[in-house]
Every structure is written in structure tokens, then in C-alpha cells.
Specification:
- There is one protein chain.
- By secondary structure, this protein is α+β, with helices and mostly antiparallel strands.
- The protein folds into four domains: about 140 residues, 2-Layer Sandwich (Beta Polymerase, domain 2), CATH 3.30.460.10; about 80 residues, Orthogonal Bundle (Hydrophobic Seed Protein), CATH 1.10.110; about 100 residues; about 60 residues.
- It is about 50% helix and about 10% strand.
- It is built from 20 helices and eleven strands.
- Strands 3-4-5-2-1-8-9 form a seven-stranded mixed β-sheet.
- The radius of gyration is 28 Å and the shape is elongated.
- It binds adenosine-5'-triphosphate (ATP) and magnesium ion (MG).
- Adenosine-5'-triphosphate binds next to helix 7.
Length: about 400
């Protein structure tokens, strides 16, 4: 069994070896190589201590030095080189109490989450697979290393990681591992929402977004989204139709759970807040949900009003969402919208041929009344784009403003 290591990885390994240390590529890189996928990054594990690693390479960064991780910069890339370690007791169900370095690769592999993630490789030793990782890869199984009840008690995030990897590869979760996940999902309350959010998003953005159903099955959504279960068939069907883009998948996951649109919106907002999503994501998702009940035709006036209400930067997501959840083909609508935009027809206050300044020039006072006049002018222009001229709008402004 050989894995074709990139030149820089080989170089890092041989530098360490030539100074009497062991070094292997480990975890995701080995797993992905065996699956015939290109690894995203090449993590390394070694019995050299952080200070020793640092002394052997010119450019290093102390990324996770307290966990024994040094980032080595080489050939314009970063490589995480981590000292073999044991994780001490996990008293809080999240973090090991202490991290102890070890001289034994086996100990380092034993602390890892799943058999498919617990293999190491270098050209000298070949594949080091102590827990049947290769076999599980072939069988398509996510299996905890060691006793699953213990491993999920140590760190409940692993429950979500099991689902995430299962969704990425279309793998089953091995029976005892799944049993433990179900039994211990309550311990997710010990895990930070940021880490939960990250695993959830990776599951949603995977090739099998419908595997979120496993999260529900394990009780891992109980904490923040128990509305999902009752609607999971509809939600999953929609998830599978949407491209693997975060906002869209998240909108599908959250936007259909209620008894009506308002209810769904409220639930989605609650979950987004609970998981501390950033404002951009929150706004984008809620925006699409807000418009998920509209009916569109190719009527130009209607579509100008739609663009005004929805915003040019959001309309494409809304169309896609409407198409996939309603089984529609909105290509004709899309074409008319393109035409409106290409023609430069006004759909926002900003594009109106007159501004507040112009109205002040007519002698109006800034304030509520002026805002209403501008809105009325926009309404007229959305009806008839020909009216978007200074001449016409100043005239109308005078009349509407009572001047
Ligand atoms: P990805 O391609 O998504 O990065 P990965 O396998 O590299 O997948 P990481 O989260 O980057 O996953 O973690 C790197 C490795 O560290 C894993 O392969 C696993 O061996 C180990 N690991 C990460 N998180 C945990 C955890 N919570 N418990 C035990 N081992 C873990
Ligand atoms: Mg990784």
C-alpha cells in the first residue's frame, strides 16, 4: 500500500527522520488518499517535541503550541505538525484536562475519533492501520475508535462529527457507535454552539445533506430545533434539490418547519440566534424565507416591485428557493428580470432621477413627509419607468409636497 505524498510532505518527513524522529501523515489525508480523493490538507504527526520541530524548520508558526501543534510553512503552504499525544481525562466533556506527549504513535492514533481517521502513513513504514480503518473505509462505516460510549462521553462533538463524515462519504454509522450517539446526545449541551454550528454546516453542505435526519434520530437537534423531525421528509427532499451552498441549504433546513410561513420564520430566527450565526448569514436566510411565499409571473411591473422589495443581491436565491420548493421553472421570470436590469430600469430609491436634496431645493423640509413623497415617486416609477426623469419627478414632487 503506497500513498503518493506531495513533495513538500515528503521533505518535512525526511527532515524529521534525518534527525532521528518518526513522522507520518495522519488523519484526513490518509483517509482521503485511500478513498482516491485529493486531501484538503496534509497533517503530520511526529514524536519530535514542538521546540524540536521549530528548531528544524526555518519558518514555523505557533498555532496550537499548547496542544503540541506547530505550523510549518514550506513551498507557500502550511502544514500542521503535531507531537504524538495522549488526551488526558475529559472532565468537562469538551476539553482534555491535560495533553500529554507520548513517544508511541499507537497512543496518538488511539485518541482519534473514528477508525477511518486514525490511520497514519509514511513511505518507510507504509500504512499504519491499528483499528481496522481500511476495512471500515471499504465497508463504508463510521466506527468510533475503542468504546463508543467512552469516546462520546469524553467529547460529545464526536457525535456530530460522525454524522458529518457519514454525510460526506455516504457512509453508515456502525451500530454500537450509533447506539452511543443516541444515548449520549444530551451531552451536546456541554459543547459550544460555535462548534455545533460548524459541524452542522459541514453536514448541510455535503453530498448527502439529508443525513441531517441522523442528527434528529440521535436527538442531537433536541437542544435547538426539535421542529425539524415532523417535517423532515419535505425538508430533506428540498435539501437534495439545492446546490451545496451554505445559505441555500440552511434556508431549506430552517425555512419549512412551521405550520405556516410566519411560524417557520420565527423558528428559523430562533435557531439562527441560538447557533450564533453571523448577521450576514442570518439576514440572507431570513430574507429568502420571508419571500418564500410570493407568486411571481412575467409581468414587468410586478417584477420591478419584486426587485425593489427583495433587493438585487438576493433575488437569485429567492428564485432558486421558489423553484425547488414549488417544482417550478422560473426561467421566463429570470429572463424578464435580466431584461429589466439590463435596461437600467429604476427599482430602488437610489436610482430615482431625483433625490431628497432635489426636494429640499424645491423648498421642502427633510423629514417624514419628504420620505413619503420620495416613496410615492418611486411607486410611480416602478409602475412606469418612462417617468424616471428629473423633469417629470420634480413637477410631481412639487404637487405631492404641496409646493
Ligand atoms: P477534514 O477533511 O474535514 O478536515 P479531517 O479528518 O482532517 O477532515 P479535522 O477536523 O481536520 O478532520 O481533524 C483532523 C484529525 O484530528 C481527524 O482526522 C481525527 O483524527 C482527529 N480529530 C479531530 N477532531 C477530533 C475529536 N473531536 N476527537 C478525536 N479526534 C479528533
Ligand atoms: Mg482537516
Amino acid at each position: 500500500m503506497t500513498i503518493q505524498l506531495p513533495e513538500t510532505v515528503q521533505k518535512i518527513i525526511s527532515i524529521l527522520e534525518s534527525h532521528g524522529f518518526e513522522a507520518y501523515t495522519v488523519g484526513g489525508s490518509v483517509r482521503d488518499s485511500l478513498l482516491g480523493r485529493t486531501p484538503k490538507d496534509w497533517d503530520l504527526t511526529t514524536n519530535a517535541k514542538p521546540e524540536e520541530i521549530k528548531s528544524l524548520f526555518r519558518r514555523t508558526i505557533d498555532t496550537g503550541i499548547e496542544h503540541g501543534t506547530v505550523t510549518v510553512r514550506m513551498g507557500g503552504e502550511s502544514y500542521e505538525v503535531t507531537t504524538y499525544r495522549l488526551d488526558g481525562k475529559y472532565l468537562d466533556g469538551r476539553h482534555p484536562e491535560e495533553v500529554t506527549f507520548t513517544a508511541d504513535l499507537k497512543e496518538d492514533l488511539r485518541r482519534r475519533d473514528f477508525t477511518i481517521n486514525a490511520m497514519a502513513y509514511n513511505d518507510r513504514a507504509g500504512l499504519v492501520d491499528l483499528f481496522g480503518g481500511q476495512e471500515d473505509l471499504k465497508a463504508g462505516l463510521i466506527r468510533a475508535v475503542g468504546e463508543p460510549m467512552e469516546r462520546f462521553t469524553e467529547d460529545a462533538l464526536r457525535i456530530l462529527r460522525a454524522v458529518r463524515f457519514s454525510a460526506r462519504f455516504g457512509f453508515e454509522i456502525e451500530e454500537k457507535t450509533a447506539f452511543a450517539a443516541k444515548a449520549l446526545s444530551g451531552r451536546l449541551s456541554l459543547i459550544s454552539v460555535e462548534r455545533i454550528r460548524e459541524e452542522l454546516m459541514k453536514t448541510l453542505e455535503s453530498n448527502h445533506p439529508d443525513y441531517v435526519a441522523k442528527l434528529a434520530e440521535f436527538g442531537a437537534l433536541d437542544l435547538f430545533y426539535d421542529e425539524y423531525a415532523a417535517k423532515q421528509d419535505e425538508i430533506n427532499a428540498l435539501l437534495l434539490k439545492l446546490p451545496a451552498e451554505g445559505v441555500l441549504r440552511l434556508t431549506a433546513f430552517l425555512g419549512k418547519s412551521g405550520k405556516d410561513l410566519v411560524h417557520s420564520y420565527t423558528v428559523a430566527e430562533r435557531v439562527l440566534n441560538y447557533l450564533k450565526f453571523d448577521n450576514d448569514t442570518k439576514n440572507s436566510v431570513l430574507h429568502v424565507i420571508r419571500f418564500s411565499g410570493v407568486t411571481l409571473s412575467t409581468d414587468r411591473k410586478l417584477l420591478r416591485r419584486f426587485l425593489n422589495a427583495c433587493g438585487k443581491e438576493n433575488y437569485e436565491n429567492v428564485l432558486l428557493f421558489l423553484e425547488k420548493s414549488g417544482d417550478l421553472d422560473l426561467t421566463p421570470v429570470r429572463e424578464v428580470i435580466r431584461d429589466i436590469l439590463d435596461a437600467g430600469e429604476c427599482t430602488t430609491l437610489k436610482e430615482l432621477a431625483v433625490s431628497g436634496k432635489d426636494l429640499i431645493g424645491l423648498g421642502m423640509m427633510p423629514g417624514k413627509k419628504m420620505g413619503e413623497v420620495l416613496m410615492e415617486l418611486l411607486r410611480e416609477v416602478l409602475e412606469d419607468p418612462e417617468k424616471n426623469t428629473r423633469e417629470y419627478l420634480l413637477e410631481r414632487g412639487k404637487i405631492l409636497g404641496g409646493k
